[in-house]
Specification:
mainly alpha
Amino acid sequence: YIVVFFVLYIIVLYIIGRLLAKFSKGDKGEVTTLTNSVLFFNSGNYGVPVNDLVFKGDPLAMSVQVLVLSMQNIFTFSYGVFAIQSLRIGKLKALLGYFKMPVLYALLLAIILNYAHVPIPKFIWTPANYVADAMIAIALLMLGAQIARIKFNFKWSAAYAFIFVRLVMGPIIAWGIIELMGLEGVIAQALFITSAMPTSVNSSVIAQEYDNHPELAAEIVFLSTLLSSVTVVVVIYCSKLLF
C-alpha cells in the first residue's frame, strides 16, 4: 500500500509540476530544477524527527516513514540525476552515466548482504557510519554556502508556485490518494504528514553537483523549509481530524 501510494503521489506531482513548468519562462534546466523541488521532499532529516515527535516513537509509524524515505532516496538519485544529466548529454548517455554512480552498487550490495544475513566487519562499519553521519552536515553546509550567494528580492516568481504545490497541494493530493485507497489510522496519518515535508536538501545537492541552477534550488529549499514551520503544524493538526 505504501509503495502504491508513493508511486501515485509522485505521478500526480509530476503532472502538476510539468503543467506549471509550461507557464515558466525559464530554460529546460530551470524547469527541471523547479519540477524536482516538488517531487523531492525532505522525508529524512526533517521527516523522521517529525514522525518521531508526533507518534512518540510508534514503530508502525516509523516503519512507514522509513519506507517513504528509502523510496524517496532511490527516486532522487535515479530519476533526479537522470533528469538533470539528460539536458546536457542526452538521455542515452545520461542513462549509461547512471551506472557509473556508486549509489546504485551500494544499494544492490546492501540488499544482497542483508538478504544473505552477512554481517559487516566492524572495521568497515564504524568508519562507514561516521561518513553517513557527516552527510547531513555536509549537505547543510553546501546549502548554506549557496544561500549566502542568493539575493532575495521577494518579487513574484515561478518558484513560489512550486513551493505552494510542495507545501499545500502536496498534502491535499496525499489526502485524496489516501481516501481513494481506503487507508486509515496510523498509516494514513504518517503518509499524510510526510507528504507535507519541504523540498529536500538533496535536490539542492544534485543541482550543485551537476551545475543546474544551484542558487534557485537552494532558494526553494530555504524558503520551503522556512514556511513549512507553519504548514506542517497545520497538516499534523488536520491528520488528527481526518484520520
